[in-house]
Backbone:
């Protein structure tokens, strides 16, 4: 309840005394409130599908157990769900505040009340986050059950289920394997870049009114796979977009600290306000940075305010248009 992130735990099960072959999870050591000795009622949510992800019915049934907070004074907010910035459900609707501990388990089958428990999957974990994040008090969750029939739920999910165009910028290794340098890709609006991971726009494109954000396909600290040279992960175009125009200690900062490794790998670029990003536009911005901005970022200009202002003054829509016409 006070932990800042969800955790995977073993949950024992017990066969029902009155119905052979029917098993319930043993949650006495998980659904507790420190300092509260009296019995606390429990509630169960059964999630059979996730319309947000295009699955009206799942193969197995997700059960989410939580405490009845009525008899518990000052039951604290669940920190795993709401205690971080951004929160676990930050890319959802996020209207309802969950309190106390919650436990999610998976039962085998999609019947009304499955009998057997099984290991939870990453898909079920994502469904749990979606259900809790899109839950509305007295109405239910937008993604499953009665709550998804609500007019607002239909409108929200219809919008979230759509896709926009982004651009994949391939690293040298992917290009050597036959991939184009730039590829147009369809990106669902539920992608974390549009919310949880979209708080760090490119510097120079942002000054050109392109609120683009990016994510490395294999993570920021990608390691070379067997037989893959580190040079294969170099991505020249990505480095141009990631370039910063700020100065520290008389030197240009260069890339963001977490992008300083030249072995960036392939990245996905999207517009964080759900607009489309086109291949030609990305290439034109990269060419403009390489041919017009980088030559201005000399050591001498980094030492003076006038020099830095000269660089910033060059990053305008008008100068970009002139460059593209030349």
Residues:
């Amino acid at each position: 309840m006070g932990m800042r992130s969800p955790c995977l735990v073993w949950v024992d099960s017990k066969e029902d005394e009155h119905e052979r072959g029917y098993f319930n999870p043993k949650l006495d050591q998980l659904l507790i409130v420190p300092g509260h000795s009296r019995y606390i009622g429990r509630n169960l949510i059964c999630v059979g599908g996730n319309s947000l992800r295009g699955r009206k019915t799942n193969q197995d049934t997700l059960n989410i157990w939580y405490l009845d907070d009525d008899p518990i004074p000052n039951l604290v907010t669940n920190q795993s769900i709401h205690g971080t910035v951004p929160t676990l459900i930050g890319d959802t609707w996020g209207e309802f505040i969950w309190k106390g501990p919650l436990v999610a388990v998976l039962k085998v089958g999609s019947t009304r009340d499955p009998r057997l428990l099984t290991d939870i999957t990453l898909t079920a974990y994502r469904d749990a986050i979606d259900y809790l994040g899109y839950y509305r008090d007295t109405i239910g969750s937008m993604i499953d059950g009665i709550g998804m029939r609500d007019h607002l739920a239909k409108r929200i999910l219809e919008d979230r289920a759509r896709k926009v165009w982004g651009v994949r910028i391939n690293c040298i290794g992917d290009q050597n394997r036959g991939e184009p340098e730039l590829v147009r890709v369809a990106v669902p609006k539920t992608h974390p870049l549009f919310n949880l991971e979209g708080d760090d726009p490119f510097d120079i494109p942002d000054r050109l009114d392109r609120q683009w954000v990016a994510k490395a396909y294999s993570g920021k600290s990608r390691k070379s796979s067997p037989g893959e040279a580190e040079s294969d992960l170099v991505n020249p175009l990505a480095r141009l977009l990631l370039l910063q125009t700020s100065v520290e200690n008389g030197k240009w900062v260069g890339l963001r600290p977490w992008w300083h490794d030249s072995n960036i790998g392939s990245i996905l670029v999207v517009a964080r306000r759900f607009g489309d990003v086109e291949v030609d536009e990305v290439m034109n911005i990269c060419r403009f940075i390489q041919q017009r901005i980088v030559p201005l970022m000399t050591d001498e200009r980094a030492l003076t305010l006038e020099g830095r202002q000269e660089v910033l003054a060059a990053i305008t829509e008008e100068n970009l248009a002139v460059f593209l016409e030349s």
